[in-house]
Model the fold of this input.
Amino acid sequence: MRIDLSGKVAVVTGASRGIGRRTALTLAGAGAIVVLTSRGDAAQAVADEVVAAGGTALALAADVADADAVQRVIETTTGQFGRLDILVNNAGITRDQLLLRMKREDWDAVLATNLTGTFLCTQAVLKTMLKQRSGRIISISSVVGQSGNPGQTNYAATKAGIIGFSKALAREVASRSITVNVVAPGLIDTDMTRDISSDAQATWASAIPLGRLGTPEDVAAAVCFLASDAAGYITGQVLAVNGGMYA
Done:
């Protein structure tokens, strides 16, 4: 099945690397106009890749925990392209520590980016999508939000929160033909996992029924599907992309 997103406008947060970068490139490859956000100018290189491949892209600096910055991104997007069809809430951070030793600032930072950022970005696009009577909101959770993981109580709380947030919102906006779904990746081969020893990676892979870490392409393909017309009757769902490690 070939997915065609021609004429659609997508905003992808945290788009400078890893899953966000590949998602932006995949959406653009399917014909979407992509607006990429990151802190600073890190997403510009990805926007340049899209343009070099013949697509249309705009990179904007924004911290998703900053409500004013988020609003500027959405206003710039709709002002320049006239519509907004797809939001991918991908921006996220980790501040890992056992709960007994976790600092309050590390708890607050992870919640502000991962969960409050999802709230701010989603709230900012709703007016446009409701007026259009169409839209796709796709948020990136994690297997950790489903299964838990020692040393990541803050991260797991945000990723589980994204699931509950999305299920509730799906019920609120379904009557306007807006779908709200979640992609929950497992262990994905990104910059973060590459910093871990090969022995540890092998141990993790042995616990995954498919026998390997996932790739950003695996996750991006799931996002692209949920953004497409083919997923028009899917809302309030969690699509697990984890190789079977949590079922």
